[in-house]
Amino acid sequence: MKTRTTILILTIATITCWGQTNEQKEKEDRLQFVFDSNLPDDLYDFYNQEKIRTSYKVDQDLNPFYLRGDFDGDKKIDYALAVIESTTDKKGILIYHPVTKKYFLAGAGKAIPNGHGDDYSWMDGWEVSDERTVEQGVTNLKPPKLIGEAILIQKLESSSGLIYWDGKEYRWYQQGD
Ligand SMILES: [Ca+2]
């Protein structure tokens, strides 16, 4: 009797397992990854919202895959998460302001002003910039006065640019070409 129950349970477990679609599996893997990564609470809660986590995958190819800084200059920590838009596979950055709970996209389907289109697949490095004053870049555009910390985006040994907050939105400033 005991054996029969065990077999029954195992069979049900196997069927349940087979019934799981790839999509579900992928979603669970994604969640597990985020869970395992020890994301800061604010960022975890943000990413774990249904509409966010179903729309954007975390870009696990980028190291680190998230940055912490005061991007809007209010002296409170903000986050930038490397993401891939699920429907298009376009890469980019999701910037989150925990104080206002607002988020902003750069790439991953959204082109920001003066930027590099809506897909940052070329991006292979990023960091919080330590520049307080931005030097003249390779275009004629005047360097912005930074309100908060800027995010330096790099295509290694090639081009770089800054993503910075202008008080209303995030914009791009091209540095090297
Ligand atoms: Ca801030």
Largest sheet: 5 strands, antiparallel
Structural class: alpha+beta
Q: What proportion of the residues form beta strands (DSSP E)?
A: 25-35%
Work out the oligomeric state of the chains in this entry.
Answer: single chain
Count of alpha and pi helical runs: 4
Instruction: Give a count of the beta strands, DSSP E runs of length 2 or more.
Output: 9
Radius of gyration from the alpha-carbon trace, in angstroms: 20 Å
Q: How much helix, percentage-wise, in residues? A: 25-40%
Order of helices and strands: HHHHEEEEEEEEE
Q: Topology of this protein?
A:
Elements: H1 2-19, H2 22-36, H3 41-47, H4 50-55, E1 56-58, E2 66-69, E3 78-85, E4 91-97, E5 102-107, E6 125-128, E7 151-154, E8 160-165, E9 170-174
Antiparallel strand pairs: 1-3, 2-3, 3-4, 4-5, 6-7, 7-8, 8-9
The structure holds calcium ion.
Residues 70-72, 74, 76, 78, 97 line the site of calcium ion.
Organism: Chryseotalea sanaruensis
Protein name: VCBS repeat-containing protein
Features:
binds calcium ion, alpha+beta, VCBS repeat-containing protein, 177 residues
